[in-house]
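Internal tracking record. Fields below are filled automatically when a chain is submitted to the structure queue. Please do not edit lines marked as system-generated. If the sequence contains nonstandard residues, flag them in the REMARKS field before resubmitting.
Queue: standard
Priority: normal
Entity type: single polypeptide chain
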Amino acid sequence: MLSPRLLRAHLVEARLAGTVATTRERSLARYRMFAARDPRALIGLEPEHDWSLGELLQLMGRRCGVSADPDHSSGQDVIDPDRTLAALDAFADRLATVAATGAPVLLGTGHPHRLLGFYASLAGGLSAAGCSVLTPAQGRCVDMATRFGVRTYNLDYVQGVALVREPGARGRGSEPGAHTHSPLPLRVALASAMDAGEPLPALVIGDHGWVCGAGQLGIEAIGLADSDDPAPFVGEAEGRVSVVVPLDDTVRSDYYRPLTRYVLNRACLSQ
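SYSTEM-GENERATED OUTPUT FOLLOWS
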């Protein structure tokens, strides 16, 4: 098993934690959007509390390790690797619990270019442990707002992981999917399962709108989030998201493999 010390070193070397690529300017802009309840920053969460910019800075400082100083307005964000490690442990513990019960799970990502492999490995481990990895609404259309107006995407599953494909994609497997923060794919998937009388997930695993959307609907959710996405951390603080792992979600996909091994080993899900 990869030791916490070695994983911590990898997190910093790969810039998954420590000094990350996310800029302070981008994070502050997203915090301001969240404070203004801009849906683009809420990503499916309806906060119970009116979070001010100062409160968000304090929260993100506690959860991620970023600077809570409002006068720190430029440069790169810093994510505390020890907070990342602690969250990975909690994340793995939740996986172990759901695997022990064989409960149905749903995995989805808005970062398929980077994180598909991470989630696919989790899906494989959970399936091998006896969990049903759900794939509702395969091929269903999802209309989502973009900077170019409302566009139609297709909900797809790759190795048990939900994602959306851009309009005009050449076919299944031709590209890894589209980047999105939207909770709409999750809502479409759950509505389809309910309409068909299919099982609903006991746990949703993912990022962006998959985590926040599930938490808002009262479904347990765990996932990953960057320092410029306050919504999952607010959901965690308000008790609607179980675990959020702070890390940079845009590094090379192979840099997440040590995290995958660590989590699967800790959860006793290694294949």
